[in-house]
Structure formats: structure tokens, C-alpha cells
Amino acid sequence: MLILGIESSCDETAVALWGEEEGEVISLVSSQVDLHSRYGGVVPELASRRHLETLAPLLEEALKQAGRSLSDVGAVAVTQGPGLVGALLVGMESAKAISLARNLPLLGVNHLAGHVYGAFLEHPMALPALALIVSGGHTELVLLDQKERFTSLGSTRDDAAGETLDKVARFIGLPYPGGPQVQKQAESGNRSYHHFPVGEMENPLDFSFSGLKTAVITFVEKSRAGGVEPPLADLCASFQEAVVEALVSKTQRALRVTQARNLIVCGGVAANRRLRERMAELALAKGVNLLIPSARLCTDNALMISRAGWSLYQQGRTIGLSDDVDPNLSLFDA
Ligand code: KG4
Ligand code: ZN
Q1: 223 C-alpha vs ligand 2 centroid, how far in Å?
Q2: How many whole angstroms separate alpha carbon 309 and alpha carbon 160?
Q3: What is the CA(33)–ligand 1 centre distance, in A?
Q4: Which of 135, 183, 243 to mutate to test the pocket of ligand 1 (most atoms within 8 A of CB)?
Q5: Does 214 share its domain with 88?
């Protein structure tokens, strides 16, 4: 059975066709980076309008490239939340229209669950698993148990890891989104140029990144006041190392607490080469099975939505036309 996946929660419009037997049939992602970069971040109204203009043609293009039609589709999976409400609505209304017109089951996928299930596109499903979700809006350590229920272990108390990368990048004059730009600069930089500390929280599995952001900004301002411009590559390498160190050390702690044997690292920041390298070292040292999607499946896409939708379908968890998007949709059952 083929599942049509639709993703429009933030600044990528994406559609995909995926089936348990066939695997990936097609995955198209239309990025809005050009639209938002001049504002240094996502402008919600512009995002919704662009999704509206892009989604139908993108779906048509996907079916054409795949040589399929809507009659080959068995279910529609769509991101229900969390995300920007206007952006989510575009995907949801389109999914509802297709579901109604074709009499197809409708699956409402949590975007964060989508990132986690994206790890099962290229690796066999292995549960229970500890998952680190690191994206532009979220930094979460969660446990996915054998019944496919999520439990929270820790999360950021302030900024998300991706948000911190984006904000610091913006401050030092790098274009949006900042994560890939920081990575690029960091590759020729010295990680030991400066040690930036990362805050500790009451719950040792919680994160805090706003102090790090302030520390980098203050360091740059002080250097400049003293007539020194910090070398961009060294600054990025040191800053990136601090972000990665925080993510790796908390994950290591969570592995110890949970005794989990499977580790998923996912979300846009999981595309980061230094984080991937450090997580591979950690997994090797601890003898755990590392499930990390390839970089193109870490950032927002609809294949992960199809895959997560498949799990919902198997559990009989469909939604109806009266169900709505939820910009604050929780990953955890009430
Ligand atoms: O998952 P995602 O595509 O969208 C959200 O759900 O937020 O994540 C986007 C975030 C942005 O903050 C972006 O800067 C970051 O992922 N990102 C990276 C890399 N690629 C994307 N951060 C570090 N290194 C990368 N290579
Ligand atoms: Zn995402």
C-alpha cells in the first residue's frame, strides 16, 4: 500500500509516496529558504502563501515523475502539528480534500514523530529506542517504547539547538538557515579556539542554549571592542563544538539512565557532520545501535510523514474531517 505524505509545517513544502513493500517511490521538497532569508527567519504569512502556491503543482509533479496516479494511493498522511498554524492548514486541507475525494484513510502525523520514524526509512525498526530530536524549533530526548508510545526524558528550557545555530549565525552575518553555514565555516576552523560553556539544568537531561548564544555574542562584542575581529572559521568551530558537546553529553547520560540499546538522532540539526561523527563515536563506545537518517532525511521532508503515517495506520489511529491542525501538538499522550 502506498502512502501519500504531505508536509507543510514550516518553510518546506514536501510530498512523498512511500510503501512498506516498495519503500521510497518519490520524495520532493520545495524549500522556501529564498523567500525567508532576507528576513533572517521564517515569516509565517509568507510561508502559508507559498505553501498554497506550491503544494498542488508539487503533488502533480511527484505523481508525474513517479509515473503514478492518486488511484495508486492507499492512505494520506499529513503533518497535523506542531508548526505554524497557517502553514499546517494548507497541508491539512489538501490532505482532507484528497481523502474525501478518493475515500482514503487520513492519518494525522506529529511532525516530531515524523522525524523519529524517518530513522526507520533506512534502518529496520528497533524498539525500545532513545531518540534525540534536534530541529529548528525542538530539542527533545524521548523514549519510544515497544508499543510505540513516546515518553519525555528532557527538553530545552529555552532555545532549541537549531534556533541557537540560526540566531548566532545571523548575529555573525551568515545567511539563514544558519546551521549549514556554521558547519561549513567550522570545517576549516579550530575547535579549541575558545571554550564556550553550556548551561546545566535541574533535570540533568534538560537542555539550555540561551546562555551559550549570549556567551558567543558577548565574546564577539568584547573582541571587537578590543579591536580584534574573531576569525569566523575558528569562532564557528568553537561554537558548533559547544552545541554538539551539549547534545552528546546529555544523550550519553540518557543512555545510561534508560539502558537503551537503540539510539535515534534526528531532526534538521542531525544533518550536522560533526554531530554525526560524535554520535557515531558514542554509539561505538557504548555498543548501541545508532539509527541516524542520511542528511537529506534529517531536514524536513514528506517521506518521514508517510513512514510515521504507516505506523498510525497499522494501529488504526486515523483522523476524520472534523479533526484539525494543532500548532502545539504534543508528542506525549495526555
Ligand atoms: O527539522 P528541520 O528541517 O525543521 C524544523 O522542524 O525545525 O530543522 C531545521 C534546523 C535549522 O535550525 C537548521 O539551521 C538546522 O536544522 N540544520 C543544521 C544543518 N542542516 C540543517 N544544523 C547544523 N548543521 C547542519 N548541517
Ligand atoms: Zn522538522
Answers
A1: 35
A2: 25
A3: 12
A4: 135
A5: no
